[in-house]
Design brief:
- Helix content is about 35%, strand content about 20%.
- With about 300 residues, the chain is of the alpha/beta class.
- The strands form two sheets. It has a six-stranded mixed sheet, sandwiched between helices.
- β11, α9 and β12 form a beta-alpha-beta unit.
- α4 packs across α5 and α4 crosses α10.
- The two termini are about 35 Å apart.
- The C terminus is likely disordered.
- Pathway: Metabolic intermediate biosynthesis; chorismate biosynthesis; chorismate from D-erythrose 4-phosphate and phosphoenolpyruvate: step 4/7.
- This is Shikimate dehydrogenase (NADP(+)).
- Homodimer.
């Protein structure tokens, strides 16, 4: 990659952000397209967010992703937010057009992609159970609502946080069938769960031997249930290994990562297609190197 003063800038903001794999897949795609662009990580502490966005305008950054802890904090700093991001209350993709910062959320599209392609089915009678009630769970709730799930159950540890999560949706059409529960409800919920999604960080490297649920709990899944872990390294997580043992379909977070990135790239480049296969391959190669280094099986 040859960077000059004419090279156009894209990036990702977060804190910390050095672990982000977005530069790997985006730069692979930009290179394949032969474009004079570069995608770089910007570590921005929360107290510096506003001044950073002002600075981005002055150095002609064309767009960026936002990750933890900026997905919600950035909203007041943007000129426009599309309806889906407004409903979810989180922005992960920002573009600069007509001297305005415009925010959207491609996490929903990323989450939905494998469910609408590889595992497409009628969801109108299906029940989704979501582990965790943080920012990632918001995109999953919106995705499950778009699928048309009959019931969406969010499970968390603290009743007060769960109530805030439920209240934050107001009367949004995305949360018509949304219910919240503390963790002790899981024995009742898992036997109904046609889709079980882990949005918690439990099982992420380096604590690869952990799972949000016990093998006995996961064994209560109904036949042909889908277990979906937003974690993409290690792959498979302990949670997905347990799910496979009881006959569940397992989906890891790699495809969500790829597809949300591809959706963002289409927005920035104003293209209908981008080289998704190259983005996926670049990440898979990166994971191979990481897994051999960490000896993850």
């Amino acid at each position: 990659m040859h960077i000059t003063g004419k090279t156009k800038l894209l990036g990702v903001i977060g804190y910390p952000v050095e672990h982000s794999l977005s530069p790997v897949m985006h730069n692979a795609a930009l290179s394949a397209l032969g474009l004079d662009y570069v995608y770089v990580p910007f570590p921005i502490e929360p107290q510096n967010l506003q001044i950073a966005i002002q600075g981005f305008s002055s150095i002609n950054i064309l767009g960026f992703n936002a990750t933890i802890p900026h997905k919600q904090a950035i909203i007041p700093l943007l000129s426009e937010i599309d309806p889906i991001a407004k409903s979810v209350g989180a922005v992960n993709t920002v573009s600069y057009k007509n001297n305005k910062w415009i925010g959207t959320n491609t996490d929903i599209e990323g989450f939905l992609s494998p469910l609408q392609t590889t595992y497409n089915q009628d969801w109108s009678q299906k029940v989704a159970v979501i582990l965790g009630n943080g920012g990632a769970a918001r995109a999953v709730v919106a995705g499950c609502s778009q699928l048309g799930c009959a019931e969406i159950h969010v499970v968390g540890r603290k009743r007060s946080n769960l109530q805030q999560f439920r209240d934050s949706w107001g009367n949004s059409s995305l949360a018509v069938n949304l219910h919240v529960h503390t963790w002790d409800w899981l024995p009742k919920l898992i036997p109904q769960a046609n889709l079980l999604v882990n949005t918690t960080p439990i099982g992420m490297h380096p604590k690869v031997e952990e799972s949000p649920l016990s093998a006995e709990e996961i064994a209560q899944l109904p036949p042909r249930a889908i277990a979906y872990d937003l974690i993409y390294t290690p792959s498979p997580t302990k949670f997905l290994q347990q799910a496979r043992r009881v006959g569940a379909i397992a989906i890891d977070g790699l495809e969500m990562l790829v597809q949300q990135g591809a959706a963002a790239l289409k927005i920035w480049l104003e293209r209908d297609t981008v080289p998704v296969d190259i983005m996926r391959q670049a990440l898979q190669e990166k994971f191979k190197i990481q897994n051999s280094k960490f000896k993850i099986n």
